[in-house]
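Researcher: Next sequence.
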Amino acid sequence: MVKFCGLIVAAASLLSLGGCAVLRRTPERQEPGVPPSAAVAEPGHYIVMPGHGAELVAELRAAPAPQTPEIVDGVGIRADERKLVAKSFVRIGTGCYPDADAAARDWAQRMGIRVAADKTLIYVLPADDKAGAKLAEEMTAACTDESGTARAALVATYYVRYRLPFGAQFRNLTADETKKLGVGGGVQIGSVIGGTPAAEANLRTGDFVLKLNGKDVHDRADFQNQLRANMGKRVTLTISRDGVQVERMVRLGMLATESRDAKK
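Model: Next structure:
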């Protein structure tokens, strides 16, 4: 089984997996962007999406965190995520609460402030069990991680709009793929996020990236390093699509922190 790793272009040190914390009631004063502490007691359970810890979120977010995230009731976790991804929003974490009362919504709001989310979507099962079957499945999946499944009558998903220098996931090639392509290395493109440089260059899921500006791409780490070295510049990617090699021009963006530094 192959697995897409990393998101976009951040250095490998920024792509560490996030963890999860069991939370309890906290003081009302919150610091946006400060990860929740396991020492605080409340029955809510917050799960960080892999690769989207606080440091990476701060690095890639498109704008400063709002005082309070926009909070709306969601319809379907997967469907809502697809719509938001198309607008460059990335899900950074999931909140799971065992009850669906006012206290649960208060907790979901506080968590949105703590993790510096731009948007918070709330999911509660409808009274009609049949109508809620699909949502129940999605809620269970969202609240399951390596530690098990958290009981949740209310689920909150948290999103941040990223300024993505590249805008696509990518993974190392398998031995069979390198043999079939006749190359020594490269990466395969996974999900492409709408409105990003990768999307504007018409890169597609399944494309194999073999070179950047004529230089061989050895693996995922090498591609990350080459992208980072060329942020803010126009680069040429040599890709293999359906057995045919073509070139795509990509105008790379810059990380949010580096964009701000450049204006000083």
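Model: DSSP finds eight helices and 14 strands in the chain. Residues 102-114 form the longest helix (13 residues).
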